[in-house]
Amino acid sequence: MAEPCGLAVDASQGTIMRRLAQVLVAVWSVCLLVGCAGSDAPLSKDSAAPASSDATARPDAIHVALALNWFPEAEHGGYFAALVHGYYRDAGFEVKILPGAASSSVLQRVARNQVTFGVENADRILLGRAQRADVIALFAPIQKSPRGIMVHTDSGFTKIADISNVTLAVNSGASWVQYLKAHAPLSNVRFVPYPGSVAQFLIDRNYAQQAYVFSEPYIAREKGADAKCLLVADIGYNPYTSVLLTSGQTLSARSEVVAKFVAASLKGWQTYLDRPEETNRYLREVNPEMTSAILEYGVQSLRPLCLDGLPDASAIGRMTLERWQTLATQLVEAGAVKADVVDPRAAFTTKFLPP
Predict the structure, then answer these.
(1) Are the C-beta atoms of 85 and 78 separated by less than 8 Å?
(2) C-beta of residue 235 within 8 angstroms of C-beta of residue 121
């Protein structure tokens, strides 16, 4: 089961019902669009989610589907920008972006060629490959992981190693949590299951929880709490995020299609970080839970993470063998995979990225 990443569920009954309705709509849309089989068949004109921002689809277009690992948010903004601004269309594609949820099986669908492309985080890609999922990472738009621990600002914690004497809500089975426990002191910290909302955080000064830097802290502040996010990447666990992937079979048989899709996606991310307004309007349409304010906050939070360590925006998406090897070693140390089961060199390719 995929770990929730992005906007936390609000504790109010109204928001819970909206989220449930959203899940049902997403499932219905997927079944409508792909016949409950996840194929890349063309969208009908009456489909719930448009395949392209262009009303007149090219008859010779290459039809592909991109499966997200969560509901559409800023962390997927560059892919939607490529759709909204016509970069996919100009490259010869008719693209449908399929929303995800907590139970999204992106890796399996891509590995089985039920969809051509997917979005997932680098650690989950390695975990999937350990289970023989034949998926390959192509493009990593978010260089520094937005994963963190949300704490109260007046706690005095300035780094993860400072966290002590609190209740910490996390998804305990996640690999990053095992890494956290092994590499941070966390004195007198009581671990509890992550509830999927900020409700307890708002009423308990000695409570901290997992978060994405562009999501839960914003929600908590909007509800009156003074919150900040301490990034797990700063203690060394730093998987690429929102990574574009495809199957080994697609990579071998349709490398020209892959090259065009990566190039259009790169252009989309460059546009989104520079001028996100039009894309954010579209994101609000496909995910009504998103407001203009939280999407703008998301872009501001993502921009330094996408450009972290890069010379400029032309290098967005780059990946290095060193980063993949480090991540593989960390997963072995965390007990998530056995040594020598995953070859990080086979998990990604840079052949479609600019020099």
Answers:
(1) no
(2) no
What is residue 280's three-state secondary structure? helix
Beta strands 93-98 and 62-67 are parallel
Burial of 128 (0-12, 13-18, 19+ CB in 10 A): buried
Answer positive or negative: Cα dihedral of 318, 319, 322, 326.
positive
Sheet holding 93-98, edge to edge: 93-98, 62-67, 117-120, 243-247, 135-139
Mean pLDDT computed over every residue of the chain: 87
- Alpha-carbon gap, residue 148 to 309, rounded angstroms: 19
For 181, 239, 326, the CA distances from 144, given in Å and listed in that order, are 20, 7, 14
What does the buried/exposed string (b/e) look like for 259-271 if buried means 16 or more CB atoms within 10 Å of the residue's CB? ebbbbbbbbbbbb
User: Measuring CA to CA, which residue among 66, 67, 70, 78 is closest to residue 9?
Assistant: 70
Q: Which tokens is 284 given?
A: 């609000």
pTM of the model: 0.86
**HSE value, Cβ hemisphere, 13 Å, CA-based, for 176:** 25
Cα–Cα dist 229/211, whole Å: 7
Inform me whether the pLDDT recorded for 35 exceeds 60.
no
81-110 pLDDT, tens digit per residue, is 999 999 999 999 999 999 997 667 999 999
Mean pLDDT, range 323-327, rounded to an integer: 98
Number of C-alpha atoms within 13 angstroms, CB side, residue 10? 15
The predicted-structure confidence for 248-258, as pLDDT tens digits, reads as follows 999 999 999 99
